[in-house]
Amino acid sequence: MPKLCRSNNRDLNQLREIKLTPGIAPYASGSVLAEFGQTKVICAVTVDKKVPRWMIQQGVSGGWITAEYSMLPYSTLDRKIRDSARGRIEGRTMEIQRLIGRSLRAVANLKKLPGLSLWIDCDVLQADGGTRTAAITGAYTAAQLAVNQLLVTGNLKENPFRDSIAAVSAGIYCGQEILDLDYVEDRDAAADFNIVMTGSGEFVEVQGSGEEATFNRAQLDSLLDLARKGIAELTVLQNRTIEEELQKISSADGETIK
Prior knowledge:
The protein has 6 helices and 9 strands. It is of the alpha+beta class. A 5-stranded mixed beta sheet has the order 1-2-3-5-4. A 4-stranded antiparallel beta sheet has the order 7-6-8-9, sandwiched between helices. A hairpin with a 4-residue loop joins strand 8 and strand 9. The chain is globular.
């Protein structure tokens, strides 16, 4: 696979170095530090023993999964003003946290979360492109870790997740389709896509546009193929991380989670 003017000399179809480090937030029910190269996002899950008021008012049974996303002030070269200081949530922030929430709900049976809400906080420590894709990938991993804890303690009878979920970017840079754009590549890309897929290969969401440029059907197909490859690799890492943590808590409790 040729290397063509990538900012970090990666192959066109190569992910950045990906790390999912569990247990980064000890007081959370499940947490990971998701690292996509120099992009670093803490994803932590809190279990709330209540559901949103609208579910009660509308008589909707089951539970809920939602997310909040924030870029910390020091996550970028220029200090980013906190939403609390601004007095309102930035439009981009709202878009991304809604994307994270609906991505996880797409692979969950909420009926299997009776009376519970999973709050997923995604805080960007360092941004170098792809913060939303790192957040989605880390959010699912952290949520599954939290679910495993609930299963062990008997606070949940069944796993609500019927599939995994991960996300990655793909774009057209220097005239070539590439996978997992860092900031420099994202900034100068002719087309930029964020693609969310399940572990079984189904699409959940495709966000993409040309940046003062156009792209053709063949290029679009190539970008989707790149994303499918990247997400398959992310899924392997997610599953390995979850399984390793599962073995630890199963050994500690003398149980096996099914």
